[in-house]
Amino acid sequence: MLKDHNSHIKNDKKSLLFLSAECESLVMSFDGRLLTGVSVFLAVADAGNFAKAADVLGVTPSGVSRSIGRLETRMGVRLFDRTPRSVALTEEGRLFRLQALPLVAGLEEAAATAAGSAAAVAGRLRVSIDPWFARMVLAPQLPRLTEKYPDLKIDLMTTNARDDMMSGFDVAVRFGSTNAGSLIARKLLDIRVITCAAPAYLEKLGEPVRPEEISGHEVILFRDPETGRAFPWEFHRGGEVVSVKVDGRIIFDDPSAAIAACMAGQGIFQSLEIGLDPWLKSGGLRQILKDWSDEHYPLYAYHPARHLPPAKVRAFLDFVQQIAKEKARDG
Which of 12, 76, 272, 326 is the most buried (most CB within 10 A)? Predict the structure, then answer.
């Protein structure tokens, strides 16, 4: 097995050296079609299929296919394994992507530097964003962003799914721990987890005063988009953590629906604190076990791993971080 492993490493290094030399050769014989081909290649690698890449680039799928075909012919290697519904990088394609990314990023950085104010924030920005954050934090603040950048157009898709979350998008925003892989992850905020219930529910069934008492109550469960299972219930106080076994009859993957059920008296719910202020202040919800609310949950923004993200991406990331901090500070 060790012999096979060493052989694989040698072959991988040979492939990397070949593709590195190929990249240098391509750059030396540079023309506009080559740059187009490499840009299309990177778009397909990010999007996962020709149709999505075509949508991102504003061209037809057949145009993408022809461009990839010309690049593969010129290089003499197959970059993608194709199926009717998707494409996957070959080993040569994966290694070529590693070599091409910093070269293209360098060109983007040089262009941005030369353009100076072409740090102009303009064009269409495609954002994949968590529904709760989009509804409770981002949407009410969007006029601030569009007034500041009148040439920016924003295409928002709300989802908390994590599989292929960058497919066809410039930026993704998600709650939860990060496994960025080839993406750049930027932490925006750590948000407190609180436990709450409707006053009517507490008046009927009593208010728990210790975490262990939750196990005797009806709870509303929330599905972890990473595992597909309900989040476990924990209570944090300083360095102390208490895990509680709960039994809820209803599980949600939409926080707005879970909050509505909680307000209707369905049971006790653990929620991110951000965005709950209107219901807590109005009395529609009441926070319980306040001394056990030291657990925090992170919010991350993701973008492709290029050395210099476009100005529109940088502007959006800065804006989202600013409004997230304002919302957390103000409740």
Answer: 272
pLDDT digits (tens, 9 = 90+) for 95-116: 888 878 777 766 766 665 555 4
Which backbone phi and psi does 323 adopt, to 5 degrees? -70, -30
C-alpha triplet 177, 280, 328: angle, nearest 5°: 40
Nearest to 292 by CA among 240, 251, 327: 240
Average pLDDT rounded to a whole number, residues 54-60: 86
Q: What is the domain range of residue 265?
A: 190-297
- Is 78 within 8 Å of 25 (Cβ atoms)? no
Bridge-based pairing state of the strands 80-82 and 87-89: antiparallel
Assess contact for 167 and 86: CB atoms under 8 A: no
| Judgement on whether residues 57 and 136 belong to the same structural domain of the protein | no
Q: Are residues 17 and 48 in the same domain?
A: yes
**Residue 210: pLDDT band with limits 50, 70, 90:** very high
Q: Backbone phi, then psi, for 264, in 5-degree steps? A: -80, -5
Longest dimension (CA), the chain: 78
CATH number at residue 58: 1.10.10.10
The strand pair at 87-89 and 250-252 is best described as unpaired
